[in-house]
Design brief:
Blueprint: E1 3-8, H1 14-23, E2 27-32, H2 39-42, E3 45-50, E4 76-79, H3 81-89, E5 93-110, H4 122-127, E6 139-154, E7 159-165, E8 170-175, E9 180-183, H5 195-206, H6 215-230, E10 235-238, H7 243-255, E11 261-267, H8 275-285, E12 290-295, H9 297-304, H10 310-332, E13 339-341, H11 346-351, H12 372-379, E14 383-384, H13 392-401, H14 406-409, H15 429-448, E15 457-471, E16 474-487, E17 495-496, H16 501-514, E18 518-523
């Protein structure tokens, strides 16, 4: 099968590059940026992409690709750091900018800079993918998404600058004779105008990759892998009832003998309202034969007592999850050969610094990724994560193929640590009950008003402050609640949902009138980046 090889130098959006190209039906293989380019890595490769990075090329220890990347004869696309890496590796110079170029920045293409001899060449095919078409001899512009603190002070020999940012810095480069291209922006991010078309032009038109990758094919590959790894051994899936773990459960149940699949749901006391009842019904519908519901609210609230730091809360929850799981497995009598399965997505991995390369930065810890106990099991090779290369929208597509009900498939994401990371500060039973009630009203109102399916994720956050208010002509102090609603395609970038003010006002009033401990409601208008979707 044709593929595009992506060298990952630690960018938080490397997986978005792969995901975008998969949308065109082309398989992507992401490998560490400094990995040797063996025959196995290059088998079926039609092109190579060099990703961005949090590093600068002049940093000590900055990631460097195998020099063979430049002698394969394959088309190469350098994105951000990838372009800077190509420049430095071929005699150019990269220097720090006086100020970072960040966010939406206008890029102007000077097609007159492209020789007429490029007609019909890879360069012409690549530039035809940019907004405005591929006509030569004209100038056109578009808004690109940038995030870098370095720029090209001197181009490497053989490269031509055909695109310039609004600040006067090189933004688009092509090579005079080789199928090498460079972008000083991120076409993979949804905010980049024409980004998909640029990547499509590279993968399909320049590289000539055949669109053979489908979700059906992914299912078959996962099934083959599971059959080989698991054999007849039992598999235990820690399931939350959310989209990810439910789809993972359905995939296991439809791939393995349902009698060897055990689903364990922990009622931590940190779940949404009526969650346990909803989960039980959903899992029964997908054919679960062994569903183990563990009631452990007291243990989790005890472990969280006195903790206020988000990372400490996440670690405490992650460790307790696995500790209880091990205890309950012993009660179940499963053999030591059992596998532990999780509904981990790739966004969990990269935000936790577990990207494919060695340079990924930690944004926040996920309890199913960075817990020391999970790490021990991972190192022992006893963890199965069948969704760990998928994004949320791909998981939903997979769920539909597996026959999961649409209301489950489209359910908004819910964090593994549950309400613990939506209660800022110390977590108590009282705060959980307050937030549960408020969040339930919020979500039910979104569904009633036909807004729920327009929103990627919506939830309420209980802030660690009280504000003065009036109830029945009596002065009182009530908790402050923040409402969050965002729109996104992949969870890596997100915009605030533009609520009709009437709906927002009515929902706020309903919450404060119904949940007596809430005295004030705010609406979070932060996008991602710079904010994350969750508050902790």
């Amino acid at each position: 099968m044709d593929k595009i090889v992506i060298l990952d130098f630690g960018s938080q959006t490397t997986q978005l590059i792969g995901r975008r190209i998969r949308e065109f039906g082309v398989y992507t293989d992401i490998v560490p940026g400094d990995a040797p380019l063996t025959c196995t890595v290059l088998d079926g490769a039609k092109g190579i992409i060099l990703s961005g990075s949090p590093s600068s090329v002049y940093d000590e220890g900055a990631p460097v690709p195998d020099p063979a990347v430049y002698t394969t004869g394959l088309p190469i696309l350098g994105i951000c750091y990838g372009l800077q890496r190509m420049t430095a590796d071929h005699g150019g110079r990269v220097e720090p900018l006086p100020e970072r170029e960040y966010g939406g920045v206008k890029v102007t293409l000077d097609m007159a800079a492209v020789s007429s001899s490029t007609a019909g060449s890879p360069a012409a095919a690549f530039l035809a993918g940019f907004p405005g078409g591929g006509a030569s001899g004209q100038e056109r512009s578009f808004t690109a998404w940038m995030s870098h603190g370095d720029s090209l002070a001197k181009l490497a020999p053989g490269f031509i600058q055909v695109g310039t940012s609004a600040h006067g810095f090189p933004a688009v480069l092509i090579h005079e004779t080789k199928p090498w291209f460079g972008l000083q922006f991120h076409p993979e991010v949804t905010h980049c105008e024409g980004g998909r078309e640029i990547l499509r032009a590279f993968a399909l038109d320049v590289c000539g990759a055949a669109p053979e990758w489908t979700m059906e094919r992914y299912i078959e590959e996962v099934r083959e892998n599971l059959a080989q790894r698991v054999g007849k051994n039992p598999v235990l899936l820690l399931i939350s009832g959310g989209v990810d773990s439910t789809v993972a459960g359905a995939l296991l149940l439809k791939t393995l003998d349902p009698d060897q699949v055990h689903l364990m749901y922990m009622d931590t006391g940190l779940m949404r309202k009526n969650e346990t009842e909803i989960v039980s019904a959903n899992l029964s519908r997908i054919g679960a034969r062994h569903l183990h519901i563990i009631h452990c609210e007291k243990e989790f609230l005890s472990a969280l007592k006195g903790l206020t730091d988000p990372e400490e809360k996440r670690r405490a929850i992650g460790d307790l999850f696995i500790s209880i799981q091990e205890r309950e497995v012993a009660r179940l009598g499963l053999p030591e050969s059992y596998f532990l399965a999780q509904g981990t997505l790739y966004t969990d991995l990269i935000e936790s610094g577990k990207g494919v390369g060695k340079k990924a930065h930690v944004i926040k810890s996920h309890h199913n990724v960075r817990s020391p106990l999970v790490e021990a099991k991972r190192n022992a090779g006893r963890i199965i994560e069948p969704l760990d290369r998928l994004y949320k929208d791909e998981v939903r597509s997979l769920g539909r193929l597996l026959g999961i009900d649409e209301d489950i498939v489209m359910r908004h994401p819910f964090p593994g640590p549950g309400l613990a990371v939506r209660i800022l500060g110390e977590v108590t039973r009282e705060k959980c009950d307050i937030l549960r009630d408020a969040d339930d009203i919020y979500i039910r109102e979104l569904k009633r008003r036909g807004l729920y399916d327009q929103i990627w994720q919506a939830f309420a956050v209980l802030l660690p402050i009280r504000s003065v208010g009036v109830a029945g002509d009596v002065r009182k102090y009530g908790w402050v609640l923040a409402l969050r609603a965002i729109v996104s395609e992949d969870g890596m970038t997100a915009d605030v949902y533009p609520f009709p003010m009437k709906d927002l006002l009515e929902i706020s009033t309903l919450i404060t009138n119904t949940v007596k401990d809430i005295g004030r409601v705010t609406y979070d208008i932060s996008s991602k980046p710079p904010a994350t979707i969750e508050w902790e």
